[in-house]
Give the backbone structure.
Amino acid sequence: MDVAKDIRFGGLKNPFNTNNIINKTHGDKVIWALVVLLTLVSLLAVYSATGSLAYKNYKGNTEIYLFKQIAFILVGIMVIYFAHLVNYTFYSRAATIVFGIALILLFYTLFFGVKVNEGSRWIRLPLINMTMQTSDFARLALFMYLARLLSKRQGIIKDFKKGFLPVILPVGLTCILIAPANLSTALLLGASCLLLLFIGRVSTKHILMTIGIALIPILFLISAAVVRHGKVKTEEPVVAVKKSSSSSLFVRVDTWIGRMESFIYGSKESDNDAYQVNQAKIAISNGGVFGVGPGNSTTRDYLPQAYNDFIYAIIIEEYGLVGGAFIMFIYLVFLYRCIRIFKRCPFAFGAFLALGLSFTLAIQAVANMAVTVNLFPVTGVTLPLVSMGGTSFIFTCLAIGIILSVARNVEQLEGKTAAQFAK
């Protein structure tokens, strides 16, 4: 096979020709099938969850969000397709530059980003007038950079100064920059990275030390929630003090403590997060085993972010516990197929890259579903490939495209080996 053509567009003379696209689509076929399944589920769930909202905002046009989701899915599929045609070694060469850009964007977002709910998570993209959550880009860049570091330092990875510090410092810096506006994303990203470091042969005692340090702020939040709950019970009534915009970090800390308090002690009438969780419980209760049927959800009219953070509750309400278990099964199969790619890839960078990206997507899915069933405090993370589209959807598709790029090159290497063996 012509390597130069393969790196450009897989040897396609016209990459937009339908027959060429089908013939040149490689990689793990099961992952391709799972992507199609999840996007179909997304269409049904988003259309159902946004029907009333679209009717209210667009004067009876209930299909507007459906068409937007179709557009995002089509763009996402194209991103997956073209990303999987690029030789994955390109991502290794670009990793350092991309990670540097990600850090700059995180710094900019922290101080000048678009503020929503007291947190600065987004930057506004010029021309297209869309907001982008920079943590999604940073997560992708971090795993590219981390896979590169792990692959190059396997010989000294057990050494604290030469092996551990160079790989943990980028993780810590990225999580620290994300945490002020989005603590849950920072914690999930950190957990995914530590899991990859463990598989990358980093010393267990170094990983446990890192976990111990990371647990300090979490224990602080739990302690603060316990103390505040005790004060509320003994010193009612409590007057809420409105924080100024200059103390946004303290507002976020107060939000984190409130979420932890709500998770530990249950809901309060004025607690928006608890209200969302209670509505999600109602949706799950309504769904039962087999659900109320597609489009028949009633909780969607009362549940904020029913099309986004809590879309899993709408899926369970309409398709029952059977439908919810099926979605969970899809993500587990996706993770299994990515682990299979990791085991088959002969080169460390590709193996670590595919595994790291699969970990972060699977952990994000588990966290979203755990929040819905109240096994985890409210986080604000979306359900990959299912929640309503945005830049997060596109970055998820890019991550899957990179995983399929590794799988495609593994297939080519195995094909060459088989051909040489036959000779």
DSSP finds 14 helices and three strands in the chain. Residues 1-12, 236-248 have pLDDT under 50 and may be disordered.
